[in-house]
Give the backbone structure.
Amino acid sequence: MEGLYQDMVKIYCKFLLLAALAAFVSVFFAPDARAANSYTVADGATVTIDEWGGCRRVTNNHASNKSLFVPTKTLTEWQTFVNNPPAGVSVATCGEMTLLLHCDGTDGGTTFSNPGTGPALSAGGNTITDTGRKKFGTASCYFDGAGDYLYSDNTSYWDQPGEFMIEMWVYVASGSDPLVGFVDLGPSGVGMFLEMTGGANFRGHFNGTYQTSTSFTKAAWHHVAFSRTSGGVIRTYLDGTEVSQASGYTSAEEGGMTLGTYRNQRGTSTYALTGWIDEVRMLRGTGSALYTGNTISVPAEAFW
């Protein structure tokens, strides 16, 4: 009996050792939970992959009747695949990326470049890049609440005749106006804003209607987005959760873009943001409505 007891103790000790080793491996060697390890694209198929800040549509056309393995465990793996796809495999952006605003630069800078297909945004008032507070990169765009805004007018790049999506990070200071416009796409009032009457409430505005609101904490970074499908369903999101949904909205062709206030209040303190905006991405066209569920994964790194 004593020998059996000793054998059982040894087995139990080995079990504890293996369990501890498994826990160590899971903590120190597990892949980042933000990204899938890989994707599989069947022969002749197209798959949308939105990982590590880069959204691409991968099409497998190498006609070998074999599925394609796409590694996305790390940012380096994903970027290497995008930049060097195998023969017979095409990689395209998720729709047309008309705006990619990193808000990077030097402290007090006034250059707001756009590596997307649309034009660079111009500064109104005293809008600057601020290195003291940012979500990603080297800086963010700072608006002082006294007439600051970013804009671009008279161009079809901001027209949204079908699918589209726009998202950004915002940080609202406590001293902002009772109504704050984050983004306004034109006179019809397609945009997102913060209403601070009786508390801070985030809303979308489409079809001339103020959508359902949700509470919003100032003096903190928040991810805000809206996304419209080809069928005209438009959704608003705050920090990964759907706030509102509207149907029947099929066009936003206004020829203008305003960040930091409403279009018709440029240069005034009314509806003006006192705070920061960072990492703005606008997509349009087929495949651009990336957010369609009740919850979404909030981006954890800068877009590219």
Q: What stands out?
A: The longest strand covers residues 274-284. The chain has two helices and 21 strands.
